[in-house]
Design goal:
The chain has about 130 residues and is an all-beta fold. Helix content is about 0%, strand content about 35%. It has no helices and twelve strands.
């Protein structure tokens, strides 16, 4: 955010940053941090930011890739709080999730069932059950 800066009694309006030459070369840059609203939890552990009160050390854990598998109907994969760089959650035990193993009119994991319920009938004279 640009501010008015006073140097030796001279007002410089709308200055976004101040660069001061350093002995030996280079410059030191100073920015207005008054509008900063981050906390240590917003920065990764091991990183440092600078806000209105000075240095703010990071406290957010870096969990890297988070992956897991779900192998039961009620299974879950816990994603820890903090930063994650991605990952994969996959299902296991789905080899039998085939259309012919799923009841027609039902869908499981994107597989539409084709399995028909057998019809049972009884011949009135021979008393034989037939399953079609």
């Amino acid at each position: 955010m640009a501010q008015n800066v006073v140097i030796n009694g001279v007002v410089y309006a709308d200055v976004p940053e101040v660069d001061i030459p350093k002995q030996g070369g280079g410059t030191a840059k100073f920015f207005d941090t008054a509008g900063g609203d981050f906390t240590g939890a917003d920065l990764l552990t091991g990183k440092t930011g600078y806000g209105p009160s000075g240095a703010v050390p990071g406290t957010m854990p870096n969990n890297g890739d988070v992956s897991g598998t779900i192998g039961t109907k009620a299974g879950t994969v816990a994603i820890p709080s903090g930063y994650t760089s991605g990952g994969t959650v996959s299902l296991t035990n789905v080899a039998d999730c085939l259309p012919q193993n799923i009841l027609a009119g039902k869908s499981i994991l994107g597989q539409n069932g084709t399995l028909a319920l057998p019809s049972i009938s009884q011949d009135s004279t021979t008393k034989i059950l037939s399953i079609a």
